[in-house]
Design brief:
Elements lengths: L1 H32 L16 H7 L11 E11 L2 E10 L2 E11 L5 E7 L8 E2 H4 L10 E8 L14 E3 L2 E4 L7 E6 L4 E4 L3 E6 L5 E3 L2 E2 L4 E2 L2 E2 L4 E4 L6 E2 L4 H17 L6 H21 L7 E7 L7 E11 L3 E2 L4 E6 L14 E8 L7 E7 L2 E4 L2 E2 L3 H4 L4 H5 L4 E6 L5 E7 L12 H10 L4 E4 L8 E3 L2 E2 L8 E2 L1 E8 L14
Parallel strand pairs: 13-16
Antiparallel strand pairs: 1-2, 2-3, 3-27, 4-32, 5-31, 6-29, 6-32, 7-8, 9-10, 9-23, 11-12, 11-22, 14-15, 16-21, 17-20, 18-19, 18-21, 19-22, 24-25, 24-28, 26-27, 26-28, 29-30
Helix pairs in contact: 4-5
Length: 495
């Protein structure tokens, strides 16, 4: 009996040992298969072949190719202004880039803005807008420049806020387009700018300005209400009639007269030509919506600018066709205005324009475009944020124009990238243009009108399109000053 008992105990111990060994082996195998903490393991038990395994790998990312450039030209046009032409290779793509560099810290170099034909409705070729007249006695000499704003078809009004030598050419913001404003020292500021305006009378009345140099339209018709300010860019007479277009119409009428045999003497034809031109202009003005409005003729006392109060004096109050005064402007009063609020002749009134951002800066020049290309030193275009979805505009390898400046705002770059050429250089997409602007040293940059409008003039020579040039609305210029820049404008006051 004892033997049987011992045998049973031995058998139980043997089974227990076997069980313990099996358990240890299972735990060890499980530990080897257990994934590391945080690692996701597929539940699929299907074995993947080497061929499929290669396909499942993400494609290799091509390393960015180093950017480089070769200078074709590097010329000092005058102290503080340079022209540089280079072939820049960005990510393996070659671009022909022309740069006018303006050293803003140089007290005799600055940036200017020029309006085609010196009129809000005119277009002009860039070489005609930026003539080079090397005169040592001149206070300003234009050394070169590029095209700037886009403009509205048919009317030719520049799009977006535009300031020229302190006077507002266009005040209305378009979508969320970017603008670059320059203060009286030529220092640039880039933002989504909008301009608001008002007139302050000596009785304390505050008269809001609806628009500048044109009446706004609503539903396809002209808004005859509100107050509009017309300055020298609005025309020689208000209402302004484009004399070139009027002359074309008049000549067409004269052709009919000649064909009918009514005029045969050449002297009489010339007299009749001038008379017909005058009659036609008068007739066009009388039919204009501005003809019967009350107009206040004003002279500047202070130099015009934005974000400061400009004192002016009323010299006349009248109606009809009114001649634009020298060094002044005309206020056109709409139909719904309370005329008891109007100032009197000889009253001193205040013209006040201000911006929605950077309101402490006194601005004297500004251009608008789309989109911002470089923000805080990082190349990334913002076309979608600013309201553009055109694939060709965004992605096309097009000629481009742009403006940018370095981090401390000591250098401004006016840039033109040419289109496809026989030397293998190509135009640029907005993304490529942003990279080019960052590469040349821009901490901030924005795109301007491009495509067929892209052009650059250096010392009067058309260097992008030597044989042809599209007429444009606004230009940015590099200006040599005879005297150093000084801050003369009154500082901004609190509204």
């Amino acid at each position: 009996m004892t033997k049987i008992k011992n045998k049973l105990i031995t058998t139980l111990l043997f089974c227990l040992c076997i069980s313990l060994v099996t358990s240890l082996i299972t735990d060890t195998c499980y530990a080897k298969k257990k994934p590391a903490k945080g690692k996701v393991v597929s539940k699929s038990k299907t074995k993947t072949s080497k061929k499929n395994s290669k396909k499942s790998k993400a494609p290799a990312v091509r390393p960015a190719q180093p950017s480089s450039h070769i200078f074709i030209q590097d010329t000092m046009l005058c102290d503080g202004i340079y022209h540089k032409q280079l072939i820049a290779t960005i990510n393996g793509i070659k671009h022909c880039v022309n740069i006018i560099q303006i050293d803003i810290i140089n007290k005799k170099a600055t940036v200017g803005v020029v309006k085609g034909g010196n009129n809000i409705t005119e277009l002009e070729r860039l070489p005609d807008m930026l003539p080079f007249i090397p005169d040592d006695t001149a206070s300003r000499i234009t050394m070169g420049g590029i095209n700037a704003n886009l403009w509205r078809a048919y009317t030719n009004y520049p799009i977006g806020p535009t300031i020229i030598d302190g006077e507002v050419a266009e005040m209305m913001l378009y979508k969320k387009w970017t603008s670059t404003f320059f203060n009286e020292e030529g220092i640039p500021f880039t933002n989504t700018f909008a301009i608001t305006g008002e007139l302050l009378t000596k009785t304390g009345s505050r008269i809001s300005i609806s628009a500048v140099n044109r009446r706004p339209t609503s539903g396809g018709s002209v808004d005859t209400n509100g107050v509009v300010v017309y300055n020298r860019l609005g025309g020689d007479f208000i209402p302004y009639i484009n004399s070139k277009k009027a002359q074309e119409l008049m000549l067409a009428g004269m052709d009919n007269l000649f064909q009918d045999g009514q005029i045969v003497d050449s002297t009489e034809s010339i007299d009749q030509l001038e008379l017909s031109k005058t009659d036609l202009l008068d007739a066009e003005r009388s039919n204009h919506s501005e003809y019967n409005t009350r107009k206040i003729v004003v002279q500047y006392i202070d130099q015009p600018a934005v974000n400061t109060f400009i004192k002016c004096q009323v010299t006349d109050i009248t109606t009809g066709a009114v001649k634009m005064p020298d060094n002044g402007f005309i206020i056109s009063i709409g139909a719904n205005f309370d005329e008891t609020l109007l100032p009197n002749v000889k009253d001193v009134i205040t013209l006040h324009y201000w911006t929605n951002v950077n309101e402490s800066e006194v601005f004297t020049n500004a251009v608008c475009g789309i989109p911002r290309l470089v923000r805080d030193g990082i190349a990334r275009h913002e076309a979608y944020e600013e309201g553009s979805v055109s694939k060709r505009f965004i992605n096309g390898a097009l000629p481009r124009s742009a403006i940018g400046y370095n981090k401390d705002k000591s250098k401004v770059f006016l840039v033109s990238v040419t289109g496809n050429k026989a030397d293998g250089t190509t135009g640029a997409s907005l993304a490529q243009l942003a990279e080019i602007m960052e590469y040349i040293g821009c901490y901030t940059a924005q795109n301007l009108d491009g495509g067929g409008s892209t052009n650059m003039v250096v010392c009067g020579d058309n260097i992008i399109n030597p044989t042809t040039s599209r007429r444009v609305s606004v230009a940015l210029s590099a200006v040599k000053l005879k005297h150093e820049k000084v801050q003369k404008l009154p500082q901004r006051k609190r509204r």
